[in-house]
Amino acid sequence: MSRASKGDKLLSDLGYKLGQTLGEGSYSKVRVATSAKYKGPLAIKMVDRRRAPRDFVEKFLPRELSILRGIRHPHIVRVYEFIEVCNGTLYIVMEAASTDLLQMVQQAGKLPCAPEARDIFAQVVGAVRYLHDRHLVHRDLKCENVLLTSDGRRAKLTDFGFGKESRGYPELSTTYCGSAAYASPEVLMGIPYDPKKYDIWSLGVMLYVMITGCMPFDDTHIHSMPCRQKKGVMFPEDLPCLSEPCKALIRQLLQFTPESRPGVGLVSKNSWLKGGEA
Question: Is 6 annotated for ligand binding?
Fold first, then answer.
C-alpha cells in the first residue's frame, strides 16, 4: 500500500471522509473532508515532511504549528486537530471555506468600496491586529490567503507558513517571505525589515486589489519594483467612482518608508473602515 493510501486509510479510521483535492504543491496538498466530530466542511492539509526542504521542516513548519495551536479568533481559520504519523506525513485538520478573496474579486471584476470591500477588509484588519497584539506576524498577506464563506461576508485569514513571533522595530527580519506582488519595498530590496510594517504594506495591496481588480504595482520585473513603489500608488483613471477616504487609506498603507506606515491599531480606527465615511 502506498504512503498516500495508508494516510487515506488512517483518516478514514479516524472518522474522516475525504473529498476532492483543493490544491497541491511539491510536498503538500489540501483536500476537502467531512467528519461527524466537527460541524461544517473541513479541509485537511497533508504535509509530506520527507519531501519538504530541510529549512521548511526545521524552521517554518514548527513556527506555523506553534501559531495555529495558540490562536483563536473569529476571522482566523480554526484548526481542529493535528495528526502526526510515522510515515513522515503531518495532517492538519481545519475549517474549510467556499472560496477565497482572490476568486471573489476575479469573478466580480472588483468590489464596491462600501460595504463589500470595507466589511471584508475590516475583518482582515481585525485578525492582523489580534496577531500583532500578541507579537505575531503573518508575512504572507494576500487575497488568496483570505477565505470566505459562501455568502462572501465572513472572512478567515489562513496560511501561516511564514508566520513568526516578532515584537516589531527594532527586532528586524531578514528572510524574504511572501509573494512579490504584495511585498514591501524593503523586502524586495533585501534589507532588514520590520515584519509588522511589512504586513501593513501587504494590507494596502490587498485593499487596492479589492476595489480596482488589479495590482497597484507591475511585478513583471521584480528588481525594478521598488522604483515604481517609491513614486507612489496610482489609481485607474477609468474608475472615477472610487471612494476618496478609501483611496486615502490605501495611500497611508503603501507608504514607501516603513516608519511612515500606521500601525494596525491605528488602521483599525480609520473613519472609513469604521463606516463613518462613504
Answer: no
Torsion of CA 270, 115, 143, 66, to 10 degrees: 60
- The answer to whether the beta carbons of residues 78 and 127 sit under 8 Å apart is no
Out of 2-11, 57-66, 113-122, least confident range: 2-11
Which letter does DSSP use for residue 118 in this model?
A: H
CATH of 99-274, picked from 3.40.50.720, 2.130.10.10, 1.10.510.10, 2.30.40.10, is: 1.10.510.10
**What's the angle, vertex CA 23, arms to CA 197 and CA 131, rounded to 5?**
25
Q: Distance between CA 132 and CA 168 in Å, rounded?
A: 9
Q: What is the pLDDT of residues 6-22, one digit of tens each?
A: 778 889 999 999 999 98
Which residue type, as a one-letter code, is found at position 227?
A: C
Q: Which of 13, 100, 119, 140 is catalytic?
A: 140
Q: Is residue 197 scored above 60 in pLDDT?
A: yes
User: Does the active-site annotation cover 140?
Assistant: yes
